[in-house]
Amino acid sequence: MARAYWLVKSEPDAFSWDQQVANGVEPWTGVRNAQAANNLKAMQKGDRAFFYHSNIGKEIVGIVEVARTAYPDPTDETGRWVCVDMKTVGPVPKPVSLATIKETTALAEIALIRQSRLSVMSITAEHWALLCKMGGVKGKA
To answer: Is the pLDDT of residue 140 over 80?
Structure first.
């Protein structure tokens, strides 16, 4: 089965890339949007995601991998929401800013631009490859 690609957003003052790296594997909790939650439910073990700093920085800073598929979010008292476990893969050597993404015609249809408030979004394989190239990611990301 082919790997799927995603982008997950986190406010660095709430949970940063450095914290992800320090923890190694971290539950991706706190998602309270139906579309984003459906994206979490669609994730499979081994899928890759860009780690994006929102609000502060507004840039792709790292790559994580789904280590555990959707399960009940322990921070949700209603039992309605899910989370996945994300494992650190590595940094994006040259962080890719939102401004750069917006300036890149080939990325005009990316959800980060079209649905800017969505915290978990699908990324096409073509967009993944381009963003990896833009970020200086070497090898098979």
So the answer is: no
Q: In the prediction, which pLDDT does 106 show?
A: 97
DSSP string covering 8-35: EEE-TTTS-HHHHHHHSEEEE-----HH
Rounded to an integer, what distance in angstroms lies between the CA atom of residue 72 and that of residue 80?
Answer: 8
Other Cβ atoms closer than 10 A to 114: 10
| CATH code of 57's domain | 3.10.590.10
> E strand or H helix at 111, and its extent?
helix 111-114
Q: How far apart are CA 45 and CA 102, in angstroms?
A: 30
The pLDDT value recorded for residue 126 is 96
Domain that holds residue 86: 5-134
Cβ atoms of 42 and 83 closer than 8 Å: no
Query: What pTM value is reported for the model?
Result: 0.95
